[in-house]
Amino acid sequence: MRVLVVEDQADLVEILLEGLRAEGMAVDAAFGGASALEQLAVNRYDVVVLDRDLPDVHGDQVCTELVAGGAHPRVLMLTAAGTLGDRVEGLGLGADDYLAKPFAFAELVARIRALARRSNPALPPVLAHGDLTVDTARRVATRALRRLDLTLKEFGVLEVLLGARGAVVTSEELLERVWDAHTDPFTNTVRVTMMRLRRKLGEPGVIDTVPGAGYRIGRP
To answer: What residue ranges does this record give for the DNA-binding region (predicted)?
Structure first.
C-alpha cells in the first residue's frame, strides 16, 4: 500500500512517516498543497492523508482537484476543527473519511487500511489463493496453516500480487505500490525481494514470472 501524507507540521510528518512505515506502508510526504498536487500528478497512491488547513494551496482545493480528475486515491482528511459541520463540509468536497486532531495513531492506521480496501474493485481484508492466505488487517501471511516470516516489503509484494487477482503486475508497479519515491527505479530491489519471497513461500511455487511483462499469482 502506498500512502501520501500531506501535512505542514514537520514534527508530525516525521512521526507519521516512521509509524506508517513500521506498519508496512510505503509512505511519501508533502509539506503543502502545491507539492502534494505535483506528487499526485506523477505517482500512484492508494490513500492520501490530507491536512485540511495547509498554508499554500488549501486542503479543500487539493481534494477538489483530485476528485475532478476522475480516478483518484482515497482521501482521509485531517483537521483541528472536528465539529459536525466541518466533517460534513469535508466529506462534501469528496473526501472519503475525516479524522479530527488530535487522533490516536492506531485509529489512523485502521482508517487508512479500511480506505485502501475500498479500491475498485473492492478487496476483502483476507486475500487467499489455494493454501496461501494473507490477512491484511492483522498483517499475517500463512501457507498450509504455517505462518510465514515475511519482511514488510515481502508482505507488501505478496499483498499487491494477491490483490491483482491473477492479473500481471509489473516491476514498475510493485516499486510504485510497495516502495516510496526515494527508491531508485533502476534498482534490482524487486527481483531480489521476489527471490526471497518465493523461497519463503516454498513449493509448489505460486508466483509466475511473465517474460517481458511482470509477475502474477498463478492458478491453484
So the answer is: 124-219
Instruction: Calculate the average pLDDT of the chain.
Output: 86
Cell 527471490 -> residue = 195
- For residue 89, what are the domain limits? 2-117
The reply to whether 112 and 135 lie within a common domain is no
Q: What is the CATH number of the domain that holds 206?
A: 1.10.10.10
Q: Quick check: 120 pLDDT over 60?
A: no
- Tallying the residues shown for the chain, one arrives at 220
Q: To 5 degrees, how large is the angle CA 143–CA 147–CA 150? A: 95
Domain boundary among 67, 96, 117: 117
Write down the pLDDT at residue 155. 93
Tell whether the model's pLDDT for residue 28 goes beyond 80: yes
| DSSP string computed for the chain | -EEEEE-S-HHHHHHHHHHHHHTT-EEEEESSHHHHHHHHHHS--SEEEEES--SSS-HHHHHHHHHHTSS--EEEEEES--SHHHHHHHHHTT-SEEEESS--HHHHHHHHHHHHHTSSS---SEEEETTEEEETTTTEEEETTEEP---HHHHHHHHHHHHTTT--B-HHHHHHHHS-TTS-TT-SHHHHHHHHHHHHH-SS--EEEETTTEEEEPP-
